[in-house]
Specification:
Blueprint: E1 5-7, H1 12-18, E2 24-27, H2 33-38, E3 46-49, E4 60-62, E5 68-71, H3 76-81, H4 83-88, H5 90-96, H6 102-105, H7 110-115, H8 123-129, E6 133-138, E7 141-146, E8 151-153, E9 156-157, E10 164-170, E11 177-184, E12 192-203, E13 206-215, E14 222-223, H9 225-231, H10 238-251, H11 262-282
Parallel strand pairs: 1-3, 2-3
Antiparallel strand pairs: 4-5, 5-10, 6-7, 6-10, 8-9, 11-12, 12-13, 13-14
């Protein structure tokens, strides 16, 4: 690992101002950046630590509108243990149980997890399905972006070099039902070959609206709009699920990797879409 200078600003805005060149990188938990530096993938001359910025960016709370506000510097373990998260969107808590391991969750931050943009991450599809948005800080101020617009490609985001994620907002769910399932080829906390999140708004036996998002099988977390259209207004049965699964497999830009071929993942998608919809319907 090459030598580097470590800067420790006292505010997130100051940290954004320090991100002034290609050789400068932010670091929060460091679980991805340090590993990439040790492997020689990254060789930054300067690291801008976010550990000393305002404490409010580490908080988790319910907002006055019933939504959930998650500071970008909250650790994944804090998110997992938060009563506000469990009561507002328990699908997040359940997803975290098999997200990597407890040593990683104790130091990895929400903002870093999202900004790393590895398509195998578990939280992006869950949060996108929940309709989450992010607040982004830059030297000129702030902007708000739907989370699904953050991802541009494999390990690529739409963030400018001098922008940092400050907060994640999850809107009030108003009784929606949600589930996240993933298929791993090894241990339960391994990188998934496929992850699928579903959030359903139901009226009795009828699905009023659906948000279905997949990850790991595609370069970026991807909403399955055609599958959502089939579920919208339908009473879920085997025939409806088969049509939605076929539509999902046809519309998704599935890619192969060390976790499975594209053909294998496409079949996984057919199976897991039906499973995740049924799992969401079973949640109260």
């Amino acid at each position: 690992m090459t030598p580097f200078e470590l800067l420790e600003p006292r505010s997130l805005c100051e940290a954004a101002r320090l991100l002034d060149g290609a050789e400068t990188r932010p670091i929060a938990g460091g679980t991805a950046v340090m590993l990439m530096m040790k492997m020689g993938v990254l060789r930054p001359a300067r690291l801008v630590s976010l550990r000393a910025v305002e404490q409010r960016y580490s908080g988790i709370a319910t907002g006055p509108d019933g939504g959930l506000r998650i500071g970008a510097l909250a650790t994944l373990s804090a998110l997992e243990r938060s009563n506000a998260v469990t009561s507002h969107a328990s699908v997040i808590t359940r997803a975290l149980k098999t997200l990597s391991n407890v040593r990683v969750r104790n130091v990895a931050t929400v903002g870093g997890h999202l900004a790393h943009a590895d398509p195998h991450m578990d939280l992006p599809p869950v949060l996108i399905a929940l309709g989450a948005s992010i607040t982004i800080v830059n030297p000129a101020g702030e902007r708000i972006l739907p989370l699904e617009q953050l991802y541009a490609g494999y390990l690529e985001t739409t963030l400018a070099r001098n922008e940092l994620i400050a907060e994640v907002t999850v809107p009030a769910q108003a009784g929606r039902r949600a589930a996240y399932l993933k298929c791993t080829t090894r241990s339960a906390d391994d990188w998934p070959a496929l992850g699928v999140a579903a959030v359903l708004d139901v009226d009795g036996a009828v699905v009023r609206s659906a948000r279905i998002v997949i990850s790991a099988a595609t370069d970026t977390p991807t909403r399955l709009v055609k599958a959502e259209d089939i579920l919208r207004g339908a009473r879920v049965d085997d025939a409806v699920l088969q049509r939605a699964a076929d539509a999902a497999a046809a519309e998704a830009g599935v890619i192969g990797d060390q976790h499975g071929t594209a053909a294998y993942k496409r079949e996984l998608l057919r199976v897991y879409l039906a499973r995740v919809v049924r799992a969401a319907l079973d949640k109260q």
